[in-house]
Amino acid sequence: MSEAILEVENLVKNYGAFRAVDGISFAIPRGRVVGFLGPNGAGKTTTIQMLLGITLANGGSIRYFGRDFARHRLDCLRRINFTSAFNTLLGRITVWENLVIFGGLYGVANARKTIRALLDEFEIGDLADAFYKNLSAGQRTRVNLVKCLLNDPEIVLMDEPTASLDPDISDKTLSLIERLKRERGLSILYTSHNMDEVTRICDEVIFLDHGRIVAQDTPDNLTRRFARASLRLRLEGASADLVAHLEAEKLDYTLPDAHSLVVNTAESLIPGLLFGIANAGSRIVDIEIEKPTLEDVFLDFARNKGERR
Amino acid sequence: MRIHRIVAVLWQEWYVTIHSTEVIVDIFFHPLLSIVLFGFVSQFLSGSDQSQAGKILLQGLLLWQVIWIVQYSVTLGSLWNVWSRNLSNMFVAPMMVREYLAAQLLSGIVKAVAIVVLGGAMAKYLFGFDVLDMGAVPLLLTFVNFVFFGFATGIAVIGVIFRYGTRIQALAWGFIFVFQPLSAAYFPVSVLPPALRWIAYGIPLTLSYEGARHGLLNHHEVAWGMFGLSFAENAVYFALCSLLFAHLFRRSRDTGQFARNEA
Q1: Closest residue of B to A83, CA-based?
Q2: Cβ of residue A41 closer than 8 Å to a chain B Cβ
Q3: What local confidence, expressed as pLDDT, does residue A1 receive?
Q4: pLDDT at B49 over 80
Q5: Which of residues 115-174 of B touch A (CB under 8 A)?
Q6: Mean pLDDT of A174-200
Q7: Would you tell me which CATH number, out of the four given (3.90.70.10, 3.40.50.720, 3.30.420.40, 3.40.50.300), belongs to the domain A1-79+153-226+292-309?
Q8: A284 or A240, which is more confident?
Q9: Quick one: fold of A228-291?
Q10: β-sheet with A212-217: strand ranges across
Q11: Which residue in A74, A100, A106 is closest to B11 by CB distance?
Q12: Where are the domains of chain B?
């Protein structure tokens, strides 16, 4: 595994008697995009706030680039950045003015040149003199991305950056993020409720529930691990032997009509299942497999709160 | 502390000010209108047997603008960021809190100088009152004292808003006026009932106001004792407000209120 940009160990946050984050540990290697998922109240936002230092942890440690965040806050913040759909820049000043301020705060050398280059890179150079409050949601997202790249960060924390964007703009934004990852080797911690985009851009996914990490793996592995595929078969006819076989195997199945069979099963069992059905004397004329998605995994977690560990 | 970060926050103050009619109105329109109003009252009083009362009144008002504008500038500077949901962006930048506050102080000083110069010019040319009648040294000492009082009050108010949220943001406009009746801004302390005088003397503003009036009525004479004591009280007040701010800022981040302020 490559060098860890961010290491979190046993992080704890209590709000009074309520434990919002319960001893989570994870690491983000250089150049990896890690998705942070979980139902509302799982502790995602609180964790991000602690990783940025705007909320204080009650226990555990946060290390960026091998340095303790609490002790080297400014050094760490110089090399990281943050963007969120829920945080905006100052509305009543222009895009350019907003970016000049952050260029100064981050001590960017040749700030004006850097801002101009980034605005051009994101194809919003013509918005420099526009007031931020007058921008569309998609334009704001791009400006926010420019702001979060001003200091050429090594890791960016993105809190639902595509929330409230329409599908087209959202897709363009994701393409930009993919490009940033590819061309700059950025590490990204990415929270979203949109499972398709998490599947698309994340190398790894961390599922949080009740303040704990309940799963951590690649999107593919997670879907294999937790969800079940739905096998839809078109048959010449469902024989009595077929029903006896399905019952004997204790399969989760339905027969919507005389020529259809739907079986919910683990993806890995599908080849054996097809073989068994064929042996039971039913001729298969069409096969359709609905593979599990990350959304199925998410829903599974959300509906079985705390039961699956 | 790094100058480039302080300058960045000052740029923010400048951009917000030039693009916000309400800020310009708050900073210039209201104070200058008050000076016109008090100028007429002063002229009315100058015809009475209390001929100095008008001058004292106008001087008190002009100096009050220093306290008010510094406190207002410090608190409003932060509230703009809260209202725009930009506060987190600012505080996740590599900026020390004291750099942020230093920039707010400098911004407040610039605005206070602008008001004293403009207001002073208006008072002189419209009503014949010269702010330098109290003497340059008393004016400078009073100005410095009031700047630090306004700043200390401002950071205490920001701390309270950070900790308890914008539902009490009215403090940003109103809190400073709590001190006005007892700080003897427009009249000598001797006007107050004896029991209240001792409370009044415990407020750093009071002795500075007395010192400023002493300079006005005694041909620029500097009341070093009053100013010295006022500075000492101000130092204690400033230290207490700084500790309060540090405590509330920490509690705000500990309880999660700091981030929730933008929700």
Answers
A1: B89
A2: no
A3: 53
A4: no
A5: none
A6: 88
A7: 3.40.50.300
A8: A284
A9: Alpha-Beta Plaits (3.30.70)
A10: A80-84, A155-159, A187-191, A33-37, A204-209, A212-217
A11: A100
A12: 3-260
